[in-house]
Every structure is written in structure tokens, then in C-alpha cells.
Amino acid sequence: MKFRFLGVVLFVILLAGCSEYQKILKSQDYDLWYKTAKELYSQKQYTKAATLLGELNNIYKGTDKAEEVTYLYANCLFNTHDYMMAGHYYREFVKTFPSSQLVEECQFQSAYCYYKLSPNPRLDQTDTENAINEFQLFINMFPNSPKVDEATKYIDELNNKLVYKSYLSAKLYFNLGNYMGNNYRAAVITSQNTLKKYPDTEYREELSFLILESKFIQAVNSVPEKKEDRIRDTIDEYYSFLNEFPQSKYLKKAEKIFQQSEMMLKSI
């Protein structure tokens, strides 16, 4: 009975709170909205606070309260995991209040929202690229910020995601083989371009072996007039691979490619 009574009391209090909140929403007392929104924000009731702040963001535009309202609204959206809209309002804050002491935080948060939106590597990576650009902009704007190292770490992580997507694309070309054209050549070009753009990537070994394997298969399937050049190119690629990755997990496969390439060269 005691617990049931407490439950009823809590329900009544909650109902009264909701009723009071609805009354505030229906009123036109914007100062009351402002005061209530800040109280709800301090209580971490971000969804309710966001409802009020979203309206106040338009009402107080151009006033002395606009800076705080925009900042609190962006934070509410972020804390309710609406990263797309949160990022939008963080960017709006940076543009509208460039001299604010909160610009550094908002620029970082803008980038971080894109980071949170960055999808699986197999999907479109527009948000990943936007995150990299925003983090780089943050570093350029605030080179002495204590968050520069964190921003750099996120850039490296996001770049690796882009590299992995490129590797998946190159691997797809490789798996397509000669279907509707020479996809091995596309695999080589995609891998080479990725290595030029991201020379320090953690996928360097995988991409390098994919180049070697693709060149070898092209040589095997080559027309007679191009065969010797392609075999020699494969052998050169093998030595480059061996020099860079002497302990590679692909070493046995690479050595087999080399041996078969030499045998083909001798038979020409």
C-alpha cells in the first residue's frame, strides 16, 4: 500500500508538471518561455527545452538573448541525438556570433555532429568528408586549442574510413574481373590513387597487394603484343611489394605470383 501510494503521488506530481508545461507552451509570455527553457535545460530535460528554444530562436533573433538561445538550442538537439539539426545550428552560431567566446566549442561540435553522422564505409561518405573539412577548419581557426589533438585523431580515423571505402571499391573491381571490360585495370588505378592520396594508411599493405595481384592477372590474360611488358611490370611490382612488406601476410601468394611470372617470361 505504501509503494502504491508513493506511485500515485509521483504520477500526480508528473501530471501537474506536464499540465504546467502545456500552459506555458500555450502562453505568449516569451520571457517565461525563456526562463522555463533554461530551467529545463539545467535539469537535462532537453526535449522539452528544445521545443521552447526552437520557437525562441526565431523570436529573439537579433536581440541580446539570441546568442544564448541559439547555443542552448544546438546543445539540446545534440543531447537528443538530432546530430543533423544540431550541426546546422552550431554552424549558424559560428556564422552569426563570430566574436563569441563559444565559437571554438561550437565549431568543434559542428564537426563532431558530422562525425556522429558518418556512416558505414560501404555507404555514401559525404558526411565523413564534411566532418574532415569541419575538423580541419577548427584546427585552422584555433591552432592552440586543447582540442586540436582530438580533432586530429578524428581526422585520421575518418580518413581511414575513406581509404577503406576505396579499398572496397578496388576489391569490387577486382572481383568483377573481365566482366564488361578490364576491371583489373580499374582496381589498379583506384588502389594507386588511394595510396597517392593517403600514403600512410593502415590499408597500404592490402592495397599494394591488390595492385600486384591485379597486374598479374592482367598479364596472364594479356594479348601477345602486351604480354611481356605486363609480366615485367608484375615482376617489378613484386619487388616493390617485397621491399616494403618483407613480412607480409600475403608473402606466399606474392612469391607464387613472382614464380609464375618468371615462368611465363621464359616461355615467351
Task: Tell me about this structure.
- With 268 residues, the protein is mainly alpha-helical.
- The chain has twelve helices and no strands.
- The chain has helices at residues 2-26, 30-42, 46-59, 66-79, 83-96, 103-117, 126-141, 148-176, 183-197, 204-220, 224-244, 251-267.
- The longest helix is centred in the middle third of the chain and has 29 residues, at 148-176.
- It starts with a helix and ends with a helix.
In summary, what is this structure?
By secondary structure, the protein is mostly helical. The chain contains 12 helices and no strands.
Task: Break the fold down into its secondary structure elements and pairings.
Blueprint lengths: L1 H25 L3 H13 L3 H14 L6 H14 L3 H14 L6 H15 L8 H16 L6 H29 L6 H15 L6 H17 L3 H21 L6 H17 L1
**Based on CA inertia axes, which overall geometry fits?**
elongated
Please tally the helical runs, counting DSSP H or I stretches of 4 or more residues: 12
- Based on CA atoms alone, the radius of gyration comes out at 29 Å
How far is it from the N-terminal to the C-terminal residue, by CA?
96 Å
Query: Could you spell the SSE succession in H and E letters?
Result: HHHHHHHHHHHH
Query: Count the strands?
Result: 0
Structural class call reads: mainly alpha
Helix content: over 70%
Strand content: under 5%
**Average pLDDT value?**
91
Biggest sheet details: none
Low-confidence stretches: 1-17
What are the defining features of this structure?
268 residues; elongated
